[in-house]
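As promised in the previous annual report, we have extended the structural survey to additional targets. Below is the entry for DUF1707 domain-containing protein.
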Amino acid sequence: MVEIIRDAAAEGRLTPEELEQREQSALAARTLRDLATLTRDLPEQPKRAKSPVPAKDLVKIEKRIGSVEWVGPWVVPRRMEIKLTVGNAKIDFSDAVVTDDVLSIDVDLGIGGDLLLITRPGIVVVANEVIVRMGDLKVRPPEQDPNHPVDLRIEVTGRLRGGDFVVRYPRSLR
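The corresponding C-alpha cell record, generated without further manual editing, is:
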C-alpha cells in the first residue's frame, strides 16, 4: 500500500504532506479495511492493486440452510464455485482487492438458494452461459461512464434450479 501511495505522490495526485500522513497511516494499519481507505479517494487508481495476500486459484462456497456474506476488503480469487440450497450468499465487490482481469464463477442454485453480487464501476458481469430451469437471473448493466476502464470481468456459468441470481450496484451509485 505504501508503494501505491508513493506512486500516487510521484504522479502528482498527492501533496508531500498527504503522502507523509498516508504513509504513516499505512504503516499503522491493522486491517485490510484500514488500508483500503487510504487510496479510495485517489483519482484514477492503478488498475491492479497489489495485495498483501495472494489471490487463491479456487474458492468453494457450499451452503445448505443459512447465509454467507463476503463484505469489506477481501482478495478476489481466480475462480469460485458456489452451491446453495435454501441458503443465501451475498458477495460484495465494493471494497474487494482485484488482482486478475477475470473471475470465473460456477453457480448451482437449488430451491431457495439465492446469490447476490454487489459490484462497483469497473466490474462487468457476464452471465450468458447460465442455464435457468427455475428462478430469476437479473444482471443489470452498470450505471457508469462507458469510458471507465474494466478492472474485472466476472464470467458466470452454471445453473439455477430454483434459486435467484441477482447483480446490483451499491445504492450510493444510483
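The helical segments are 2-10, 16-28, 32-36. The chain has a mean pLDDT of 83. These points will be discussed at the next consortium meeting with the crystallography subgroup.
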